[in-house]
Amino acid sequence: MPGADPIVREIYIDARPEDVFPYLTNGDQYSLWMGLSAELDARPGGLYRVVPNAQNVLRGEFLVVDPPRRVVFSWGFEGDGHAVPAGSTTVEIELIPQGEGTLLRLTHRDAPPDYGERFTAGWTHYLPRLEQVATGRDPGPDPYAEPSHRHA
Q1: How does DSSP assign 90-131, residue by residue?
Q2: Comparing C-alpha atoms, which of 94, 76, 93 is closest to residue 85?
């Protein structure tokens, strides 16, 4: 069964790529904008594991780590019974210098056809939080981390 069209989201961040990149590869910095915790081993073959809320765990592995320009990891939900199993989709994040800042382009591939809208909504929620932390602001509590919010 073919996947949905790739999800592409872009956001401008008023920070240099080298200042944004650690928020994609360092677990402590990643969890400032997405998830309750993140265990990241940012090297090809290394673990990508994020706990976004009390019910779900995202797991995959890093496929490409090219500081400060690009990171690619596989992505899905840990555990049995998920329509999007761990590592079954791919997320690519490009950091493109633009003026004094960065154009971040996220492309999420291989999502099941009926998940495209849900994943689009998720990234539309999380990328502004990344922009806030990368520019030194506090995005506040994440409503997606609440126990009542289930991603899958």
Answers
A1: EEEEEEEEETTEEEEEEEEE---GGGHHHHHHHHHHHHHHHH
A2: 76
pTM: 0.93
CA dihedral sign, ordered 8, 11, 12, 17: negative
Closest CA to 9 of 107, 98, 95: 107
Angstrom distance (rounded) from CA 34 to CA 24: 10
Give the strand pairing for 89-98 and 101-109.
antiparallel
Could you tell me if 26 and 133 are in contact, meaning their C-beta atoms sit under 8 angstroms apart? Answer: no
pLDDT digits (tens, 9 = 90+) for 70-79: 999 999 999 9
Q: What CATH class does 7-137 carry?
A: alpha beta
